[in-house]
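Bug: token stream looks shifted between consecutive jobs. Job 1:
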Amino acid sequence: MRPGILLILSILVLLAGIGIGLYALRPAAPQAVASQIASHLEDELDALDAAAQRITAGLEAGDSTLVDSERHHFYLVHGERLLLWSDNVLVPPLRLMRETTDTRLVKVSGADYIIRRWTLSNGAYLVGQLPLARQYTIRNDYLNPEWNRRIFPRANISILEPSASIGTPVCIADNCYFRISILPDEPGANEHTRGLAIAVIAVGIGGLFFVLWRRTELVGRTRPDLAFVMLLAGTWLIRYGMTQADFPGMFIRFDLFDPQYFASSDLNRSLGDLLLNTIALFSVCYYLFRNYARFRSIRFLLSQPMLRPALALVAALLFFFSILFPSIVIQTVYNNSGIVLDIAQSLRFDALRVTAQVALILSWVCAFMVAHVCMRLLISASSRYVVAIYLIAGAVLFTIINEMSGQIYRPTLVIGVAYFLVIYLTGFYRRLRRVSYATFTYLFIVIVTLAIASTVTIHDFTRKEKIENQFRFASNYLIDRDYFAEYLLQDAARKIASDAFIQSRIASPFLGKEAIRQKVRQVFLPSYFNKYDVEILLFGPGGTPINNRTQVTFQELLSAYDADGTSPREGVYYASNPASDITQRYLVVSEIVRSGVPAGYVVLELLLKKIIPENVYPELLIDNRFQQYYRVHDISYAVYGRGLLYSSGTFNYERMFRREYLGDPDIHLRGIVLGDYVHVAVEDGNNRVAVVSSPVAPPQFILANFSFLLVLGLSVLLVFVLIQGLITLIGGSTLFFSARIQLMLNLAFFIPLFVVSATTLRLTSQASQEQLNSEYLGKSRSFGTQLEVMLTQYTDPEERDALNFENQLADLARMFNLDANVYDPEGHLLASSQPAIFTNGLASPYSDEEAVRRIRQGENQMIITERVGSLQYNVSYVSLKSPVTGTLIGILGVPFFQSQASLEKIQIRALANILNVFAVMFIVLLVLSYVVSEWLTFPLHFITRSLSRTSLTKTNQPLTWDARDEIGLMVREYNNMVYKLEESKAELERSQRERAWREIAQQVAHEIKNPLTPMKLTLQQLERQLKNGGDVRDKIPKALDSLMAQVDTLNEIASSFSTFAKMPVPDIQRVELVGLLKRIVDLHGQSGAITFRHSQGEVEVLGDPQLLGRIFSNIILNAFQAERPGTPIRVDISLERVGDNWRISFQDNGKGIEPEVADRVFVPHFSTKRSGSGLGMAISRQGIEQMNGSIYFTSKPGEGTTFFVELPAIRP
């Protein structure tokens, strides 16, 4: 298809996509959205009914299991008891399930769902639950809003009660289940329409880029540098237009194109934009990589001695910046997102992390291509000994620029210099024209270099991020007061004191007081305080405790804070000198007055939770909207006043940390490393100093990052090898035998090692999981053994004390460093050591139904995976039996919230070891494969060298090979061939001598015949005149002159043939063409206008330097002698690579060669000039052919002639 037509089609498709997009972005019609939701809701309710019918039939038949699915959940209720449940994450309140008659909306604990009830024949009823949405009161990495995507086309919809006065009703057959409220400017089209708009616009943009690329190729045939500028400008315009239009983020928000997860600039508004920009840059770099040698601008700069230094300096500078580019990509990701690239931190590869890794690999490819181009230009623009000077100058300029901009550059500088020296000294930069093993060795060195640079950058940013987290942790958790919390607490104290319900409850001696605690926790404490452990204490008007955990009176508690704290706000006390295990402590006092008479006190004691996890996963209860979690799981900390006030963690501050270290300024600025720990310190206004310490990253983890990146790069190289193999197979060309051996050896190692590594990791994970499960069960069993006595007392109606049992459970959990939930034999919660999980609505007060069923069937312990939000964790369930009767009295559930993290740590350690072994073994095998290939191919090289010396003009020696193997058989056959060749050579030499003498005799006769004819005519004329008696005295001198001239001609012919016959055999050796041609040009520079253009540094061929010099000089002299009258002669010499040959072109603007004599140019003694022997071109042709080359020409009469000399390039 013609580019113009394709351009028009692309524009039309793009306009159509924009039209669809505008339609998709039109404001949403609430009624249409409600109708769409109602249709989806009807489908889901039908599925709920179908599942209920199957379960009902099973229950009527005696089956006591409820089938669970992601779409809906079921609960079996009889009387006042919940008998069965298929899901224990969000169980509807029993009261609502009893009161529901058919179908209703339930909004509780931030969750919205529909329940429907079916009555069974035995009086029980089945309740089905259809989740709609859930808004957690806490927001963090694990707790985010959830929406039923099968029902709602978008997530930003508010679900309202069906009786609400606002919103649009969602109805099915006149039954309105709820109302919805959407934003006024919310797009009205569904995701399918917006997806279609994205697809159509993407096709249009792809068509435009394809047209741009085709046009670039067309222009690049004659003006590649102009085509490069076109491609660069066009690509930038396309990407600029996409980012300014926020495509595709304007149509649909998903993580890849969501600025919430990544945004660094206008061009990198999301991680998807970063990937697209990297792909666009890759296309530009690829074109530069393939065509830079043909750029006229570069050729011009290389041909100008005054401009070469500038080109070399710019090339050196860009070389270092190209090596720096992947580090900049890593820096951009780390500075503008929470994406983790360190393999030692996380093994979770979500779409964002995979995209970041792909962008990093693309930046590697771009860096390699630009670095290769810059290296070739630097070498071409300078001689061998001046390259180092320009490299140093580029390094100095690179240092100055980065010092001024504040960019981290030192590792890149060192790595770049080392990389340049290795590639330059080994000559691998010349190994890309033909795919061989040297090519893959070059690419392997590139991968190793970029992997080292990226590893250093990732390690630096990981360490920097960890130290910054330590500083923030010290400032925000150990030093600073929580001013916002103080404001909220003062407001809460006033509201609690004026609450009528609390006033009546606390004043009545007959009403329970637990309802006061529940209301205070649920109504007056916002989710901001989830980062605190809150204890609600109630006191009577005289200060006596009311069902508190301790018997401390109100006056004793208040006096402790008066002596040990400050009162920043009325009714709010802050402890400035906390206890050894507390960082921040607040006390809030609300005096309750009823009818003007003091009725009691409600006191809130808030203790900041420890971030270092000991028996609970802390970030599960921390709201990231108000408090950032710093992702530091392995820190220790201490607070110093006049001495060590308190410490926490594994680091022993008393023995391993000296107070003098606090006087080091670095510990307050950037941290210091002491042994295996990094320490930072922050001081507050009260001369308290918080020290936070974390372990230094182990060397094997740093090496694991390098190994992972190396494997990633090798995987890309493996794909390249497969693609190149297919291209080679389709094209009919082949790789060198040694290259095939080495590649096969590498693949034969890489693939099995990859499979073995993956299998080992999987088996290690399974074994680790089994070990962790066994450990969990052991801890739970020990915990349950001691708990059984307490539970036995609790189940005794005469000794039951719920508060005492909860305190005993909490103390026992702290002693075992565990969390624990105790359920009755039916799975209903009795007590918990971490009630915040339940009071915050993160879990329901029921155990897993499968655990209850299996324990009833006789199992005593098991591990079951449960979920809170997106956090999966293991729960160890253990049956609790009476020590006296042996009957089941309860079920112990021990949640191991850190189980996934513990397993991941083991997997990271195993993967690090596997990757390190993989990398080391692969590098060793790479060297070994090279040695093996050299050993295996030595006989072939040996025979090749012998065969190259085999000639009909020299004596051929037989080969010696002692081994009786396949090579020995081939050698014996070769020796037999040599003996036969010697016999054939003797016969051939005899016949060739005879033929040569005949040809020479014929040529000599032909050449001698020309002067003999005028000699004979002169003598015959003299003879006739003598016979006639004429006077010949006047004619004799003239005749003698003519005879002498012809004799001289005969002598010249004889001398020429003697020279041609005695021409020596060329002395074949390595010849550097560029230097040779420069010397020839300098030699003839005074004879006329002559130029030499080339873009190569050094070019070596096999030939005779003296003979080549004479041949080139002869061609140049012939050109000068072909000058047209009135037109100054000009000779242009160029050198270029053509296939496997180097071609030297000598182009002049002379009079040219006539077509009728073109076939005799290389014939001995033919010449178009009046002088000369006519042997110059014949000798040139013979010499070039003896060097396995060729010489030919093209000519246009009146315009000029171009002679071409092609010589084979030396293969690597």
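Job 2, same session, no restart:
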Amino acid sequence: MKKLVLIILIASVFSPSLILAQDVAFGKNKVRYKDFDWSYLQTRHFDIHFYDEAYPTAKFATAVLESSYVEISKELNYLIQRRIPVFIYNSHNDFQQTNIIPSLIPEGTGGFTEVFKNRIVVPFSGSYEDFRHVLHHELTHAVTFDMLYGKALSSLVSRQRLFSMPLWLAEGYAEYSSRHGWDSWSDMVVRDATINGYLAPPWALGGYLAYKEGQAMIKYIADKYGEEKLGDIFRNGKIHLTMNRTLKETIGVNEEEFWKEFSKEMKRRYWPDIAIRKDPEEIAKQLTKARKDGSYYNEKPAFSPEGDRIAIFTDKSDYTEIVLISAADGKVVDHIVKAQRSSDLESLHSYVSGISWSPDGKKIAFVTKSGGKEAIFLYDFSKGKVTYKKRLDYYNILAPAWSPDGEKIAFSALEGNKRDLFLYHINKDQVEQLTDDRYDDIDPSWLPESNQLIFSSDRPHSRNLKIDINQHLYVDSGAFMPGDFEYGYYNLFRIDLINLAVTELDVGPGQNKAPAVSPDGRKVAFISNRNGIDNLYVAFLDSTRYFAVTDIISGVKSLSWSPNGKAIAFSAFNKGAFDIFMLKDIAPVGDDGILTLTDFMLGKYDLLRTQHGHKVLVAHKLEMDSTVNGNVAVEWAGDYEAYTVDSTTWTAIDSSAIDSVTPGADTTSVAADSNLVDKTGIRNGEFVFINQSASDPLESIMIDINDTTGHSREGSTEPASFDSIPLPLPSGEYIIKKYETKFTSDYAGGGFAYDTFFGLQGQSYFVFSDYLGNNQIYIATDLVNTIDQSYIQAYYFYNRHRTNVGFGLFHSKNFYLDNSDHLFSDRFYGVQAFANRPFSTFSRLQLGVSQYFIDREYHDFDDDRENRNSKVTTGELAYVTDNIIWGLTGPVNGRRAKVSLQYGINLFESDDIEFQSIDVDYRKYWHFKKTFSMAFRVAGGASFGNTPKQYFLGGTTNWIGNRTLDAKVYDVKNLYFADVVTPLRGTPYYELSGNRFGLVNWEFRFPMVEYFVMRFPLSLVIANVGGAVFTDIGAAWADNNFKGGTSEEGSRLKDIKTGFGFGMRANLGFILLRYDLAWSTDFRNVSDKPTYSFSFGADF
């Protein structure tokens, strides 16, 4: 639907104006900085598309997708009906350029699944564990879309499309499945929400909480009612259409009853943590006040060399920015840079990157997306601006770290299908690669001598715990794969810059990340989740001693040492947002630095499965005690996920035996017709399928759950069909085929009827595109009897390159009654061509050329006007800039502007319509306290030529019910080529007209009704109703005949009209409704009665 709306809007930009009020077309741009040469390979169920040298990444995805599909199929008891196309981008920057969906993709988006063609689209970030998780997550959406909607065309006209999955169900199940039930990050979010009272009922869940609380809800259903109920929920949703009835039918309770059960269980689970652990503000000084100051994200603290200031990322001002805060009290002392407003600073990568100071404290280094490339910027405090920009040919540059000698900046970056460490030599302007392997190397931190780095990596480490199904050791989902390739299990390492030798550090078990070397070089602080929560730890580099220095309820995300080594600034998740804290007591906490394991780490939340069906863990049978050896605790590792022993999930085999695998044996190659996948066997890039059943060593500690579902599957019993590509080769490699453009339907709808009097009638809409979205066709028809009486539009758009082009044709027949009640008709048809060239996300140049034909016919016998045929050629060249931030009812921050040149010429010498014009529109928005906003607009235009274009001022955009028309509006040149300029409230449509105009609008917007419930006489709930007070001042005049004021009958305005008043705006979800009450004034008199208007659409 988004694609359909976009195409209609694009077409409307270049359509001639009609008599309804218009608004100027703005909007940001999706920039194609590069062209992609796509290929694809096929597996049993997937067509996996990739480009450049990404075959190894695509091959990795084959194993992940096929094995994940087996798990999802078992969980939902469903087999897909059609093949699933998958598109893999080599970086997030490339991913943001996709045409598969038209909307802009935010930096925090890890992937998406498009519903019409069921396409999975994901970027590769450098972390194979993140990649595995996103692939599995998006695959759950593809499977459930297939389950709910089947083929898009048939579903569009069937009742089942009315079931709209709530976000908590869609994303909750996706997280549940891709995280194999539960994980420590989800545990942190739901714990924080439960303890701080912002858990939301399912009908009110939205945003990120819908993912994590939704995951908890899905797990609760699976644990209490059985995992087989998950598939039943989707099946029953197709029948019962509402979530309330679906839950009642599936698990016997409605939404409200389910919410009471679930919320009580979460309180029972997490409230005891209050007595065991501390909030961050209880152990450290809180420096930022998220939520209170309008921010939600205060991250990546970096101490200045003097220790008096800390640089951080914050979203306090809507745009992500770098600010300096006082290390003493957290007050903002300087605003450095803001992103998301210009091509130089499109993004600061604040979620994953960092900030680093020069040793002398005069500059900071940070990473930005600039002009489509990754760049390292240096900001000079003495000059108050960025003084150095180094654009690099790498992707996903992270964690810049300025060396103590001031000569180098270390960073992590993605090149090809691997993320490695690099050095940028500032004076030499050279980049040196430090690591070159398939492991994910991140977070470099310097030792004082500038000759060694400590970093985090998922390369093999002796602390990485192997899977031992007899002892039931928990491991992170996907974090370990025996054989030649381990990934996803992060620990700390040291690299020597002289010989590039990498050695591991023993800092204890767990996922160990974000190292920061102390100023004296003796210690390293880092983040570890070894007790189930991301806490701060400190390890001594000259020994094996390490200990926890925090034991908080939520979790730590980033850290920085003070220059004297006596304090650590860190960011922590707290009450639903991230804040900066200062820890001054750096000493062991817990039991001599050993922390109590969370219940999740103790396995109390886990539901385990065997090949015999569903099982539950008997908690008292599982003993999980920490073994203390001196000051070292052997604690359980990773984001402890439930390890499942199942012939359709993880079947552990000895990696040494993989060499002996041959087709025809019990273990077969990829080419085997088997749906049993072993995720553990990888050697030399070859993924191994397992079709044998293993005994279950967990049987003694498991009890059966009654399983009445059996092992049948809904859906096809045969694999989705291949095209002509053969199966994989015996070596396990795949045949690669070039992508070819093939059009398929995105949307189709409408209906037809035949009447003996009116003949054939009907409406239809069709949208076609190729799988990459580079080619789009839009067709709309409204047939009435014959073709010459019908409405037809057909447009083609080509978006593969940076410059987007398109062309189309249209035809319509409209009948009108003029002010004298004379009937006439216009047959309006023509062709159009257009192109736009984006310079960045925020600015573009657009060009449109049209040829219009207008055949006017007068139908009344007493109407002596002659029929006429007009042929007019028009063109427009416009420059558009837009960096605004949207609120609920309109823009709230930023600015947007448009300057356009238009012309109309008589190429066929059939009419006298000929004009030139220039129009300017500038708008600026200010946001206060994340609640109030002010909007200012100034616009003007002038037209010249034999028949200059007319500007009509008055009224408001999309005024419901107002049809006031001036007789001259029906003139061909005005009906199709004039501009209707709004708002000028307090006046009717067409109050002013001329070939010159000026308009100024000012509006103050504020919240009015946060939540309103009415029970009688109607059941009505209205939320987030906004209010506004406004003033509009406008004028339109002919040529130079303008007189702004007069002293006749007292000083007053003459050609200028002014309106003022107040209004309300309500976002009803499917439409924005506006109500305005306005008075007109000439600054001497005010109208006796106000003008009221209901209208729809966003505020200007």
